[in-house]
Amino acid sequence: MSKTQAVSVDSVAPLGPISPAKARILAVAVDLFHEKGYERTTVRDIAERTGILSGSLFHHFKSKQEILYTAMAMTTQAMGQSAEAAVTGVDDPVAQLKALILMELNSIHREDGHAAYVLVDEWRSLDPEHAAAVLKLRDGSYERCWMAALEGCADKGILKNNPRIARQLLRGALAWTRTWFRADGALTLPGLADEVCGTFLKS
User: Are 174 and 196 in contact (CB under 8 A)?
Assistant: First the structure.
């Protein structure tokens, strides 16, 4: 059993409005989590780089774990909104899939895309309740968009894999591109999106 199975999310407070002060703390924390890792980053590190006292940070967040959860939840919500925007007005499932792949690649490879890295790299640092809460967010509009595109391709007989297996493979493959893709290389992100589509779809 994974640590996110059979876990209640009732103890996790829903995301509320993010004040400018909280947004600043989150941005600093994400940069530090990316640079040093969650475990090696201290509350003092976050406070010092933000320019506040360590005690003042707790007026905004109860713990470092809450900071990590909030950053991941906000990233997940934003990716859901981006997914919906990517497929709005697009009826062809192949075009939907390509748009979603390119959307995710753009998110991963943004120059300031540390939040996407942290979402993948620090997943195991979330406690079970917070991990379950992020999964619940992810399984909303974000995953619905992906599954609709993949199932549409399957209905047309052009998807090489079972839609759910294809989704898992896509998630890992796209995340892994950050270890080898170079923006200054010959391959562009749209070109990479075409390559990925070709891997999963029959010609």
Answer: yes
In contact, 71 and 121? CB cutoff 8 Å: no
Local confidence pLDDT in tens for the 203 residues of the chain: 344 344 444 455 556 678 899 999 999 999 999 999 999 999 999 999 999 988 889 999 999 999 999 999 998 998 899 999 999 999 999 999 999 999 999 988 886 667 877 888 889 999 999 999 999 988 888 999 999 999 999 999 999 999 999 999 999 999 899 889 998 999 999 999 999 999 999 98
In three-state form (DSSP H/G/I as H, E/B as E, the rest C), the secondary structure along the chain is CCCCCCCCCCCCCCCCCCCHHHHHHHHHHHHHHHHHCCCCCCHHHHHHHHCCCHHHHCCCCCCHHHHHHHHHHHHHHHHHHHHHHHHCCCCCHHHHHHHHHHHHHHHHCCCCCHHHHHHHHCHHHCCHHHHHHHHHHHCCHHHHHHHHHHHHHHHCCCECCCHHHHHHHHHHHHHHHHHCCCCCCCCCHHHHHHHHHHHHECC
Q: How many whole angstroms separate alpha carbon 115 and alpha carbon 113? A: 5
User: Among 56, 69, 59, which residue's Cα sits nearest to residue 29?
Assistant: 69
The token duo for 69 is: 């959860």
Other Cβ atoms less than 10 A from the Cβ of 155: the count is: 11
pTM of the model: 0.80
